Amino acid sequence: MSIVLYLLLGAVAGWLAGVLMKGGGFGLLWNIIIGIVGGFLGGWLMSLVGIQKGGLLWELIVAVIGAVVLLFVISLFKKK
């Protein structure tokens, strides 16, 4: 995948995670960062449970799952 596609996928995943977590997102740059880190986190979590699939939609789903987990962890530290 090209770097531009990774950035777009990260932005969409970060935005979707922000919407799902009722945060509405953190702006384009933070959405991209959260989405990309979430993609790595989601890929790692999926490999732990043994789920390996392919395709752009699957990558987006995995990135959103990872970004939601990341936002949840961030919210735990933010409230304290």
Structure commentary:
By secondary structure, the protein is mostly helical. The protein has one domain. 79% of the residues lie in helices and 0% in strands. It has three helices and no strands. The N and C termini lie far apart (38 Å).
What string gives the helices and strands in order? HHH
Which structural class fits the helix and strand makeup? Answer: mainly alpha
Radius of gyration, taken over Cα atoms and rounded to an integer in Å: 12 Å
Beta-strand percentage range: under 5%
Q: Count all strands and give the number.
A: 0
The helix content is over 70%
Q: Report the total helices.
A: 3
State the domain count: 1
Which residue ranges are poorly predicted, with pLDDT under 50 across at least 5 consecutive positions? Answer: none
Based on CA inertia axes, which overall geometry fits?
A: globular
Q: Mean of residue pLDDT?
A: 83
Main beta-sheet strand count, sense and barrel state:
none
Separation of the first and last Cα atoms:
38 Å
Which features does this protein show?
single chain, 80 residues, mainly alpha, 3 helices, 79% helix, globular
Question: TL;DR?
Answer:
It is built from 3 helices and no strands.
